[in-house]
Design goal:
Blueprint: H1 2-9, H2 17-31, H3 39-45, H4 50-83, H5 90-97, H6 99-111, H7 118-133, H8 139-151, H9 154-163, E1 169-170, H10 171-177, H11 188-202, E2 206-208, E3 242-245, H12 247-256, H13 272-275
Antiparallel strand pairs: 1-3, 2-3
Helix pairs in contact: 2-4, 2-6, 4-7, 6-7, 6-8, 7-8, 7-12
Length: about 280
């Protein structure tokens, strides 16, 4: 088992050029060290029965397999990022090799809990690829985006994506847009939906739709008469109040949900035998 892990870590890298240098550095930053128990297990092994030792061995084997899968996933993500960058561009190459960018990579992979979902892995890949090639957002904002990936669920991001490019969309329209079936107002799904909107609102990602003047100042709205029955509380799937993304939400879409196309002809230097 450990031999397989060592083989994965020693896969052949390109031996020269900017891509080689950058890829090896990125993998070193993301991989980290695997904390084997070593002497600790030896010290307490004498207190275990044969059955307990067998269970411990199975646990360690499962743990190592989990770590191997996580390392492979991180390696795949790093390779996909590098495949999307023009490292012949001195500006991009300098950015990737900078301490600021390496700090973003460390933060991402240190806090990454593994394969929670394919979607989240792709969001991470897109954020780091766009952080290397564009400077729309500051590194402080990008760190916030990375925190959001860990903090929020895929359903949160589906809702954010549904709001994008709309000049105001209702909760009812969003529910239909993401392909959800109708549910009762007193259901757990309805409660979850309202909770997600509260979290996205307090998190600064979405807000209720506002009009602005020519200088970008928000215009105070005149309260309008509601057509709702006063005896019934506001629906989780309300069709009157409209939502939009904040500027932070707009930039998150650009970084996390915009996929740079892979560069044609990129060769990371892995052979078929190395990947098995």
């Amino acid at each position: 088992m450990t031999e397989e892990l060592q083989n994965n870590q020693n896969m052949n890298m390109p031996q020269s050029g900017k891509i080689s240098k950058t890829l090896r550095a990125a993998l070193q930053v993301s991989g980290g060290a695997i904390p084997f128990a070593g002497g600790v297990l030896s010290t307490i092994a004498s207190a275990w029965s044969e059955s307990e030792q067998s269970r411990a061995n199975r646990f360690v084997e499962q743990w190592i397999r989990m770590l191997e899968d996580e390392i492979r996933e991180k390696e795949q993500t790093i390779i996909e990022i590098i495949a999307r960058l023009d490292l012949q561009d001195d500006k991009i190459a300098k950015r990737v090799e900078s301490t600021e960018y390496q700090s973003l990579v460390r933060k991402t992979f240190r806090e990454w809990s593994g394969a929670e979902s394919i979607e989240k892995r792709l969001y991470i890949r897109n954020i780091l690829a766009n952080a290397a090639s564009t400077n729309i957002s500051s590194d402080d904002v990008i760190r916030l985006f990375i925190d959001w990936i860990n903090k929020y669920s895929v359903l949160h991001f589906q809702i954010v994506g549904a709001i994008y490019n709309s000049k105001g969309i209702s909760r009812g329209a969003i529910w239909a847009k993401i392909g959800k079936e109708k549910v009762r107002e007193n259901s757990a799904d309805a409660d979850l939906y309202k909770l997600i909107f509260r979290e996205l609102s307090t998190g600064g990602i979405i807000r209720q739709h506002r009009y602005t003047d020519n200088q970008g100042n928000f215009i105070k709205l005149t309260p309008r008469k509601s057509n709702r029955d006063d005896s019934i509380l506001k629906s989780a799937f309300d069709e009157q109040d409209l939502y939009e993304l904040t500027e932070l939400g707009q930039q998150f879409i650009h970084y996390a949900m915009t996929d740079l196309p892979p560069r044609i002809g990129f060769n990371p230097g892995f052979n078929d035998g190395d990947a098995n």
